[in-house]
Amino acid sequence: MAAVNFDRQFVYIGTGWEGSAADMRILKCACERGGFTVPDGKYYLVDSGYANTQKFISPYRGLKYHLSEFGPKAHRNYTGPEEMFNHRHAQLRNTVERTFGIWKKRFPILKNMKSFSFDVQADIVMACAIIHNYIARFHLTDAYLHVDVDSEEEAYGITQSVDENIFEEMISVGDSNKGALLRTQIKNEMWLMRVTTLNL
User: Fold this and answer.
1) What is the pLDDT confidence band of residue 114, given thresholds at 50, 70 and 90?
2) Where is the DDE Tnp4 domain (predicted)?
């Protein structure tokens, strides 16, 4: 599991989990035992594999979400505020996908580590994240950070299955009722701004 900022740097990375581990289980462990915290009044954008809470805002399910589903700007019409929220959410969360694309292009070893033991694989991931952050902070002319990089994650047709039962055990990751209120507030404010702008 990883969290990134808008400067395409890792702010948290958790290694040592099998690929089949549920996203929410990993997040819960990161919050309870892994030192991952969300500053008061802030939140992270997450994909639909996670529950929506006041700390982790996910998109609305069952509506368009991936950028490729929205088409070009000139032909974009939203069916309602939830769909517009999902589009804006995907635009912002794309920073994560681009960061992973840069990271994998910079460190090809991340794509093929089967010959290493599981522990060594976890160490390689952490080392690559640390080096990536160092380059991003101190080598501002780095070519990888200043070009558009396609990543495997940007194949927007990928969906994740979600175990709804795990949402009931989320004390450390936030409250789903507060998350629903926050997401609704953000959605309504964005929709009002859009409607106001279109009526000018």
Assistant:
1) confident
2) 2-133
